[in-house]
Amino acid sequence: KRTLLPLLRDEISAFVFPCHLALQRPELKHMVMELLRCIPLLLFLIFVCVLDHFIFSVLSIIQNHSFVQYSYQTSHHMAINVMGTSLMAQLLRSTIGALNASADTQLETSNLACLPKPRGMTREQYLNTCLPLIALALLCLAQVYPFRLRRVIASFYFPKREKTRVLFLYNKLLRQRKNFFQRQRRRIAWRARQPPGLGTSLLEWCHQHWPWLCRCQSRSCTLCETPGTPWHQVCSAPTCSALYCDRCW
């Protein structure tokens, strides 16, 4: 039986705790990457909507400025009256009278059938186009919570395999913990070798001339950067004033 070591402050950010409702750093990083993958689709959708609006505007301008309408109207009236009561007058009325005619013609035509008929996307069509992208973005935001159930499902159906996985991760954590302090020592040594900046030099000069300013300064742990408390330890070296919490010390 193994006793689990408490996680350090820098190690907590690399683990996901299923009981926390808030999004954690590994989940937030994964969620941001998923949302970034939606950007090309969003740009393509915006490009399609803008192109549809542009084409609709151009076709509307063409239709308004290229519309031509023709109107043709004619009128024809012919009447021949033969006066008299003689036989010749009656004969002419029966023959030439058939030529009497009356006709009115009115014709209207246009090039409307040849012009383009623009049909832009309606508001419902725009909404139907945006709905899949909105659903995809919501899925990217909500997928972090179902992902936490993967290990629970795996431990229920494959307990031996999940136990092997947990032991492997724990041993990996122990190896990382062994190298963690060495890496932190190298980081502190590298920071100590760096020349102090203008602000640091001015602060040290103020502390030398006015020691009471040290009480007003809020300090933190050099390694994990936790706020200073009365239980924090100061480095025993006379030339070093680094502050460490009890765990890092």
Automatic annotation (TrEMBL):
Subcellular localization, as worded in the UniProt entry: Membrane
Annotated Dendritic cell-specific transmembrane protein-like domain residues: 1-170
Record key words, sorted: Ligase, Membrane, Transmembrane, Transmembrane helix
Membrane topology field: Multi-pass membrane protein
GO cellular component terms, semicolon-separated: membrane
Primary location recorded for the protein, binned into one broad class: membrane
Protein name, UniProt field: DCST1 ligase
Organism: Furnarius figulus
Lineage: Eukaryota, Metazoa, Chordata, Craniata, Vertebrata
